[in-house]
Recover the amino acids of this structure.
């Protein structure tokens, strides 16, 4: 089925996505056609899970993996991918900067079990370009060649830092920001533009980029090179200036049949999160918003996955469509396998908390069912529905006990004291769900 927004998903597959999401087929079809929903799948990659991202859908979660320049252990990253798949990530991104980047990317894709897979081609273009051309005098079309290489490998979505212009890069470096540019890809492009006195290569070759992504049916994720890296820098003229540029580029992509998302902050205080989502949606015409957290404080070192989950829950409730997880190692170092798991589960909890507001009863059924089973002291059901059943079971059994309640209240558990006075009380899921709203307005 051809759509204006460039997805080649078949009618049968589209109906399956609608079933999975619990929405109307026609709503989904129109969302894809108008660019408000994307399906992250490269047409050259086979057996990719059908993951739709956008308005009116369940908030998705992304896991970042990848080698660094100082820790090059591809097998460690393979284990991270496997853990991410096991614990239910919706998408995976490879941010590798160390080792043979082509081999690492292909290996991680192979073990991703069909999970939609993303990359940041700027990293490879810069790292290999500096080596190949002997410095920063990299030809602008080299950046596009690397993008095409990733598309040929079957990458489903890519961060493209097209919104940072040379003017904005210079302005950022002369600004009073605490952290002028915290994006790794953004800093690489800023150096390239200043050293070569030239405009952003992704902007220079924008029309050709659109042709490539349309050909492969992949998704452009417009990067936020000037995202705030400190709460004090949030919503300054640099962040908003790049957002305006990205919104213009997103509208152009949709008009030309290319699937597109916009990436968001970053660090910002709680009071700015909702306004940020609403502003982005208004400027872009409602294309999917992909947010990193946002982190709502700068002092959560070692617990940044919690700081990010707080912001992510608010962002999701306000309309953000996909959350990029953070791990406890954020700002400290490369994450371990266990830290990847912790970050993913924190982000999934945040996404679901947002969906309870955004989607209402469509997201609430699971909560209601678990709550009913909790009142019944049905531990097997509760544990089976947890984000980490093994951990839940360990905690449940960490003290010896001989009664059906937990060891916090023991024999004084309310569900042991009260049941005989509530013999005729039978909670029903559907009736309890009516306490929730109907969720987002289906406007198409």
């Amino acid at each position: 089925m051809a759509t204006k927004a460039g997805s080649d998903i078949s009618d049968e597959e589209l109906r399956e996505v609608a079933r999975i999401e619990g929405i109307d087929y026609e709503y989904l079809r129109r969302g894809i056609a108008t660019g408000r929903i994307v399906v992250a799948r490269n047409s050259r990659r086979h057996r990719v899970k059908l993951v739709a991202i956008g308005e009116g859908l369940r908030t998705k979660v992304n896991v970042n993996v990848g080698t660094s320049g100082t820790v090059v252990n591809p097998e460690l990253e393979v284990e991270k991918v496997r853990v991410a798949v096991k614990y239910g990530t919706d998408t995976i991104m490879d941010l590798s900067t160390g080792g043979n980047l082509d081999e690492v990317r292909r290996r991680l894709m192979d073990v991703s079990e069909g999970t939609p897979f993303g990359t940041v081609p700027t990293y490879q273009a810069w790292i290999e370009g500096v080596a190949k051309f002997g410095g920063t005098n990299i030809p602008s079309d080299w950046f596009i060649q690397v993008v095409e290489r990733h598309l040929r490998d079957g990458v489903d979505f890519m961060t493209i830092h097209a919104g940072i212009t040379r003017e904005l890069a210079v302005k950022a470096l002369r600004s009073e920001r605490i952290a002028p540019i915290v994006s790794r890809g953004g800093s690489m492009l800023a150096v390239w533009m200043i050293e070569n006195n030239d405009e952003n290569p992704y902007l220079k070759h924008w029309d050709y980029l659109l042709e490539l992504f349309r050909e492969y049916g992949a998704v452009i994720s417009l990067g936020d090179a000037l995202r705030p890296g400190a709460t004090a820098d949030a919503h300054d003229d640099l962040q908003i200036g790049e957002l305006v540029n990205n919104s213009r580029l997103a509208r152009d992509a949709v008009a030309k049949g290319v699937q597109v998302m916009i990436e968001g902050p970053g660090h910002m205080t709680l009071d700015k999160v909702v306004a940020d989502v609403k502003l982005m949606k208004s400027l872009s015409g409602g294309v999917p918003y992909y947010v990193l957290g946002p982190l709502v404080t700068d002092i959560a070192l070692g617990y940044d996955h919690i700081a990010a989950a707080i912001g992510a829950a608010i962002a999701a409730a306000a309309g953000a469509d996909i959350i990029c997880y953070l791990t406890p190692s954020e700002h400290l170092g490369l994450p371990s396998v266990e830290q990847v798991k912790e970050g993913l589960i924190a982000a999934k909890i945040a996404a679901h908390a947002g969906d309870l507001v955004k989607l209402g009863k469509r997201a609430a059924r699971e909560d209601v069912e678990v709550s009913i089973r909790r009142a019944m002291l049905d531990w097997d059901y509760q544990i089976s529905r947890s984000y980490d059943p093994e951990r839940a079971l360990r905690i449940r059994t960490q003290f010896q006990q001989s009664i059906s309640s937990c060891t916090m209240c023991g024999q004084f558990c309310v569900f042991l004291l009260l049941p005989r006075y509530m013999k005729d009380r039978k909670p029903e899921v559907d009736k309890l769900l009516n306490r929730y709203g109907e969720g987002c307005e289906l406007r198409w």
Observations:
- The mean pLDDT is 94.
- Residues 364-433 form one domain.
- The chain has two domains: 59-359, 364-433.
